[in-house]
Amino acid sequence: MAATTAPPLAYRDAPEAPVRTNKKSAWGSPTTYFIALVLVAITLAPVAYIVLGGFRTNSQITESPSGLPAPWVVSNYTEVLKSSVFWQQLGNSTLVALVTTVGVVVLGVMASYVLARYRFRGRGAMYSLFAAGLMFPITVAITPLYILIKNIGLINNLAGVILPQIAFALPTTIIILVPFLRAIPEEIEEAAWLDGCGRLGFFFRMVLRLSLPGVLTTGILAFVASWNSYILPLFILNDQGKYTLPLGVQAFSSQYSQDTAKVLAFTSLSMIPALVFFSLFERRIVGGLQGAVKG
């Protein structure tokens, strides 16, 4: 029997070559960071101009439109905050946004659960119909929608804004939530059945908890979209006491067209709640969208 020969000593004792890591690929290209910073600056510049403009006087804005406040003036913001019109419009926007969000989340979760977990004829066509709703903006349907709302007596009523907003937000909600609900393993549902849990019990005890990231994502998107909605309230609401903040900004800028600083202060106070809300839950939105793609 032939003896096996050992490998040469040089090959046995040779140290392993170190793995070289490309620092440029690990940290990214400087060009990428530069482009990202430019895009961030372009996005934040208008917001910063509006906020800082509220701390200036009209003469400062006229002399140096892009300058900083010198001195800082807080009277524009205090006068807006003392106005009852601002708080009334803030309450209208909050009410419309909250009711719209609740309606979108509740109806969206229930419809998505049926499309994701039930098997019935026409399920694919129904899902495709909701997907097609993403390509149907509200501006296209504003005229027939106005006629419909007028016929049912909801003109100059906040409900006439809330109901269409819920309807037009459902396609996005369903497209995001269906992958979440489909990704729930069937073994969990079978175990729930063995424990005596029915379909409704499984829905409330398990489905809602497992799909919470997607639910939060759709709720945040619905809230921000409702808060910033302009075209629908413009057609439906004609009483200034029913105005939401986007309409209030337009009415305020028309009333105080000569007082640019105060208009900027009113505008910045109107958009701050949505910006803060979106910034606080930004990670939730990203995580929810990633889960929808993976599902």
UniProtKB/TrEMBL annotation:
Chain ranges of the ABC transmembrane type-1 domain: 90-281
Keywords, sorted A to Z: Cell membrane, Membrane, Transmembrane, Transmembrane helix, Transport
InterPro entries, A to Z: MetI-like, MetI-like_sf
Pfam families per the UniProt record, alphabetical: BPD_transp_1
UniProt subcellular location: Cell membrane
Domain of life, per lineage: Bacteria
Membrane topology listed for this record: Multi-pass membrane protein
Sequence intervals crossing the membrane: 33-52, 95-115, 127-149, 161-181, 263-281
Matches recorded under PANTHER family: ABC TRANSPORTER PERMEASE PROTEIN MG189-RELATED, ABC TRANSPORTER PERMEASE PROTEIN MG189-RELATED-RELATED
Similarity comment: Belongs to the binding-protein-dependent transport system permease family.
Name this protein carries in UniProt: Sugar ABC transporter permease
Source organism (scientific name): Luteimicrobium album
